[in-house]
Amino acid sequence: MKRDPLAGRIPIVLITGFLGSGKTTLLGKLLRHPGMDRAAVIINELGDVGIDHQLVSTSSEQMTLLGNGCLCCTVRTDLQETLREMFIKRRAGDVIDFDRVFVETTGLADPVPVLHSFQSDGLLGAQYRLDGVVTVVDAVNGMGQLDSMPEAVKQAAVADRIVLSKTDLASSEVIGKIQSRTKALNPYASLAHAIQGEIDPALLANLSPGTAKALPSELNRWLGEGNAYLGKALRGNHDAAIRTFSLRFEQPFTWDSLNAALQTLTALRGPDLLRVKGIVNVEGEAGPVILQAAQHVVHPPVTLESWRDADRSTRIVFIVRNIEKETVQALFSAVGALTSS
Amino acid sequence: MREFLPEPYPYAMAKALSFNMRLLAHHELQGFGGIGEGMALQQTSGGRRILWLAHEAAPKNFTGVDVTDPRAPRVVVQTDLPHAKMRSNSLDVTGDVMAVAYQTSQVGLKPAGFDLFDVKDPERPKLISHFDASGPYSRGAHQVWFVDGQFVHMSSGAEDFQPRHPEDDQIYRIVDVRNPAKPVDAGRWWMPGTREGDKEPAPARLDPKIATGYRVHNTNVFPERPDRAYIGYIDGGAFILDISDKSHPKALGAWNHSPPFNGFTHTVLPLFGRDLLIVSDECVRDDGVDWPRLVWVVDGRNERNPVPISTFPAPPVEAFIKRGGRFGAHNLHENQPVPTSFRSEQIIVGTFFNAGVRAYDIANPYQPQEIAYYVPEAPKLARSGAIQLNDVYVDEKRIVYTVDRHAGGLYILEMTV
Hints:
Mean pLDDT of chain B: 95
CATH superfamily of the largest domain in chain A: P-loop containing nucleotide triphosphate hydrolases
Number of strands of chain A: 12
Order of helices and strands of chain A: EHEHHEHHEHHEHEHHEHEEEEEH
Largest sheet of chain A: 6 strands, parallel
Oligomer: heterodimer
Number of domains of chain A: 2
Largest sheet of chain B: 5 strands, antiparallel
CATH topology of the largest domain in chain A: Rossmann fold
Structural class of chain A: alpha/beta
Distance between the termini of chain A: 37 Å
Shape of chain B: globular
């Protein structure tokens, strides 16, 4: 008997959102839920004086100021070290057996390099897995931030879940507009509303498959397939540089063809691959292969136990900058044709 | 960057520690929660599952627990020993026959050896026979391995075995129980030089601070290689024996980490599909006196030259070494070749006394990874102030049964890796 490649790793949820969007309020409320009594939180903030932590209600005295600056840059390694240290303390019984971790980034952080570092740090992968990205978008100011701040666009684009905050302070017209905007930007993310940080904690957990026995419904939810139809109907995406699209391939890949396609894509356009996630049908594998990548790093693929429904097509969601859907499709087709000959 | 961790607490044993193991049930075994290193899971003809446990010390002999519903374990029988200067410590079950070891606290006492019981009706175990291994230099049997219904392989003294050193009294013995009513001595082997009259010189003793003796602990024989016995020989290290002729076992290969390590090789678990041996030590001193006691991964491709290639990552030493009682390796789940046993050549589960029960992934044998653990809180009346998990059995559904050496009884866990 072997180990489940996904189960048994502590899920990490990355919470992003622009400055003042309500991430800390959300976390503060979240941690009061009974099901969250074993959650650990890492907060990254910009500048010398932190005020956010005073808003997070916690009985903990375990608080370490590790550094200042943006999580996406030099502090990234601090995040990795913090996660390692937290696990060491957990094993020693110095802290409670936390069963999930929320990482709150600074408002200015680009979440992509953080995703990248989770996927490239093999040591971290022994104990943790990235569950997903939750992006908080302020219903009142969000539109302006998306218009003027490229990082805000990126945060929304890579999200698995978008939480619209402050919907009690915005008119229904404004809420409608920002919903359309985020849907156009990232049709694969599901949308939730939070007022004063109140949200069903289930919406911030189980974002991605947590076991090799994952059901098709879980995979579909992860890929956001239930949400995508709305996105296609939308027009007028202001954020032209960032594109989100999904490709479907009916023919199974071989490991060679999949590797070749991914290597070509990451080598040529790595910096513009904000996030890639999908399930792939690879010849000879018993179940779908989970694929995740950020920038030029592809996470070691994980094979699920079995196909549990009739649809065995490959489905990959791409969140990219300045790359056309057709270009990626053509690349995969060409590589597939070359490697099969 | 700051981290917020919920509710810190010192390693004061106020709470259990867990990672990928969930407690399903805890049973104190009617106030007799000190269990040795005998655990076997019987599947009865009526569809029940009975976990048999050998007690670590008198007055109790063995306990049967109905674990058909692992969330609701129920004691169905608990038996007494004939006197207090003995213990059972070890047992094994094949089909409906159970072998129970008897070890006395001094040489020359009886009963010493093992009993065979018919446990078809678990509530009423029926004695089938007794195998006598008592003698003027014998304390009887410390451990029995009985998985094929035909032979009991054990660590035991013998009436006619006189060791040169009193600590070297338990040798490898094979007993033919094909007729369970009449067990017959079938073979034996001991480390050359340990018997009075051997022509070989006596082995040098280890440092007296940690020396425990040259005697046999576990004696594993599997159907994949019925001609091999894998022997933990305490201070003598690990031995691979050729037992194709049971009446004349021969040593093929040996490996001993001591000195410079601290002796007490306990279990030698072969992984046939991977040509590996997993070798566990046993910690036998409190408060880290004999640290480190480890679990070793040994390359067994050439059985004449076993080569160690890694050790399991130890539990955090600073956190546990002074926590109370013993801290270090002990029993492994032994991939028992029976239908109720978890069998894996990748996931190895072991007990570490006050550091609980732990599971390791050896997909890469050069770099074992810890993937799960459970450290129960200190049992009520724990004499060392900490849990002392002694033995573990994992069933085919990945349910982990583990027992405390002194007071805590049985812990049933679900492993979620």
